[in-house]
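Troubleshooting: if your tokenizer reports a length mismatch, compare your output against this known-good record of 130 residues.
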Amino acid sequence: MSRRTLYPLEVRNGLLFLRVAVGDGVRQPVIARLLVDTGSSFTVLSTQVLEDAGCNLQSPQSYISITAASGIVRGKMFEIPQFSALGQTIEKFRAVGFNLPKSVDTDGLLGMNFLRNCGAIVDTGNACIT
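Known-good structure output:
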């Protein structure tokens, strides 16, 4: 039986957050604080984080329509050279770039495309991910 690692989550106002590293593989990666969101199909990162990490915001891989609380919004899909979280680094990770309002207290959403890929088990009661 393989041993699984427990990763603590930050709890703020009843929400769970995880710090991730986003980079281009050349410069120091950018540390981003993402809301763990099992209702989000894709990981969403602020355009500021993507720009700081060296992504070319003028060349999205594609465009995507997202159902948000405010209705349907349009985002840009980017291929991030390196995305690291939960002890894993994924190369050529796909995430949606979005201009997040300054009032939100997060750099984006950690979505199911990452959580499912690494077989994450989210324990909301103990605020951790296995």
